[in-house]
Amino acid sequence: MTDHPDLGSRPADDPRSRAEALRRLIERYDHEYYVLDAPTVPDAEYDRVFVELQALEREHPGLASPDSPTARVGGVVAGGFESVRHSRPMLSLSNAFDDDAVRGFDRRIRELLAEAGVDASGLRYSAELKYDGLAVSLRFERGRLARAATRGDGAVGEDVTANIRTIRAIPLHLHGSVPEVLEVRGEVLMWRADFEALNARQREAGEREFVNPRNAAAGSLRQLDPALTARRPLRFFAYGVGEVAGSEASRLPGTHSGLLDWLAAAGLPVGPERAQARDADDLLAFYRRIGERRAALPYDIDGVVYKVDRRDWHELLGYVARAPRFALAHKFPAEEAVTDLLDIEVQVGRTGKLTPVARLAPVFVGGVTVTNATLHNEDEIVRKDLMIGDRVVVRRAGDVIPEVVRALPREAPEGHYRRFEMPRDCPVCGSTTAREEGEADRRCVAGLFCPAQRRQALLHFAQRRAMDVDGLGEKLVGQLVDGGLVRTPADLYRLDAATLAGLERMGEKSAANLVEAIDRSRETSFARFLFALGIRHVGEEVARLLAEAYPDVDALIAEDWDALTARKAAVQKENARRRARGEPADPVPLEGVGPEIVDSVRRFFAEPHNQQVVRALLDAGVRWEPAAAPAAGASGGAGPAQAGALQGKTIVLTGTLPSLTREQAETMIRRHGGSVTGSVSRKTDFVVAGEAAGSKLEKARALGVAVIDEAALRAMVGEPG
């Protein structure tokens, strides 16, 4: 038998003692889940313990007891609600975990029908989802909702009528002709998106977060104050009936699939994911189809349910102690499991993001063996109070990367656990890391140097709007990096045609073309060069502003950024006074470049590794024409653009121009003092429209904004076509 950490030192070879310990453990789990609404273990762990107890009782019949959890449906009645005895017990379902169990279910159904003298050739199954929520019973009398109760222990539940009435998905009265008494069985659940929003509100209010959507649904439904339940986004799916009485009872459909359609027509929500099946192969096909779509569903499920479709055969097939013979729950591989957190390591992503990763004792979850799981960031580790050495719950849903959900209560001596601290230096290259204000992630700032960021840095450096190295794509960059030929962008300028021709899918002509493209990229602009460096938050527009304000890299490295920030604040304050007096404003240093960007630029150029790569690029011959009259130098900050024919004009580009690319047109406009924006407003001076101009042109006409073509733009600035 499999040992379990919560069973203490109870010997596994003593069946009676083992059974007693398992029963106590299951009772504890039941109390935590059904009474406290605070489960400490995932379903998979509960199922494992339950299956072990079932096996023990089968192997040793003398251990069977009416007090055993295996003889009950599960759950207990909590205090605070009136008790409701169900007119018909709300039973659980037998579980299947593999294909053989499903085939065995189909075989037993056919054998039982044959024993009863029934022709099973017309056997059909109804297949539907096994929702991960809270089972309830809704009693309708003369079509109106009279009472609602939780399943409780299957025989007695809790009266939650007032709370159920707050769920808008549940009708207060049914449509059409319905039996005098109709007891509808179904599941209260919470959509994943609603669950995330609820937990966000819990965090903001400083209140306890819910473990999962089912826990949130149960906790919400079992509030003593219905007003609180009303504020929770609960849903409902009907999946069957209990007691049915009255003149219309005989008119209910004779099949389970027909019954679900009838319930939907009566106004009750019924799950849309349903199918009919002829045999075990059809059932398994449904199981696999739903399994592939499981992660995309808006709510949690933990399996599918198969039921014999003909309802008159249900009583014929009968029941076992805690479940009907005519139905089976086929459960998916556990999405949550318990294991040990052995260590926490840090990975550096392609953009420099540092991600803590849990190293776990191997555990089978979600259909695979998991040894690593994401911890997202250092704030998440603190929020979940995780320590190395913890017993943790791991979750894996579909193809989503496994994550550590929470730690279980600590029971080992204090020295068994160790706190984790996020490194302040990059674990890959040793460079400085930084965490910007308001962000959860810490990042390595040496993007040009860090091996973890090489591919991303090279692809960004070579893109068309940066250094424009034509032919340097993702696969080729991968070969250059993996082969050790290129470590930083500066190494590109040392490549020769012979070396490149030796790479996979690179002939001599392609190699020669790439060498020519690399050589051609040496001639660039300072703005393009700054953008190519991949400085965080520095896009093309910010790179242009920096290039207008500083003549070269040395000026950026030498800048006193604190002094610049102080000058900027002083000018902005003085301009506020000038506007109040009706006076023209002074130029603002680096206007349009906020403090986050300034900090990012400061950190980039303060990192020695980045400076080394920039120097290597310049030594390799990368150059640009210096600005004729830079607006400001290293000491002065940025000033206004050079005056020109478009000085102070706001211009929008739309459509395809005859001879200018979008970038060339923007450069021309800025060279003559204008600014380019992406949207049309009443403040727009004019729109330059080309072929296939769309909504921007229509908006310009509607607002009465002037529209010109490329020829008119060239005439305004005096540049020939």
Summarize the structure.
Helices cover 35% and strands 18% of the residues. The N and C termini lie far apart (86 Å).
Describe this structure in words.
It catalyses: NAD(+) + (deoxyribonucleotide)n-3'-hydroxyl + 5'-phospho-(deoxyribonucleotide)m = (deoxyribonucleotide)n+m + AMP + beta-nicotinamide D-nucleotide. Its EC number is 6.5.1.2. The active site is at residue 130. Zn(2+) binds at residues 426, 429, 444, 450. It comes from Zeimonas arvi. By secondary structure, the chain is α+β, with helices and mostly antiparallel strands. Among the domains are: 5-71, Helix hairpin bin (Helix Hairpins), CATH 1.10.287; 95-331, D-amino Acid Aminotransferase, Chain A, domain 1, CATH 3.30.470.30; 337-416, Nucleic acid-binding proteins (OB fold (Dihydrolipoamide Acetyltransferase, E2P)); 641-721, 3-Layer(aba) Sandwich (Rossmann fold). 35% of the residues lie in helices and 18% in strands. It contains 24 helices and 24 strands. Strands 12, 13, 14, 15, 16, 17 and 18 form a seven-stranded antiparallel β-sheet that branches. It has a five-stranded mixed β-sheet with strand order 2-11-10-3-9, covered by helices on one side. Strands 5-4-7-8 form a four-stranded antiparallel β-sheet. A hairpin with a 2-residue loop joins strand 13 (353-365) and strand 14 (368-374). The longest helix is centred in the first third of the chain and has 21 residues, at 15-35. Mean pLDDT is 88; it is low at 628-643.
